[in-house]
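Milestone 3.1: sequence recovery, worked example.
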């Protein structure tokens, strides 16, 4: 499942806790970092993607693409 405009990831983590494989997408790196922290606290995995606005390439916080 893909959540666009994931923000701080509360919905993505909620879905992951219910067994969904979730990818959270947002432009805000700070929000995606909070998503990682929340997912770790809840013991679930949520993939994050931070798209760029210019060329459509994707990046993830702390991960070179």
């Amino acid at each position: 499942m893909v959540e666009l405009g994931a923000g701080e990831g509360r919905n993505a983590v909620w879905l992951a806790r219910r067994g969904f494989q979730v990818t959270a997408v947002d432009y805000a790196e700070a929000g995606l970092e909070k998503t990682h922290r929340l997912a770790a606290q809840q013991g679930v995995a949520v993939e994050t993607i931070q798209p760029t606005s210019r060329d459509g390439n994707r990046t993830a916080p702390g991960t070179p693409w």
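Strands lie at 2-4, 22-25, 46-51, 58-59. The radius of gyration is 11 Å.
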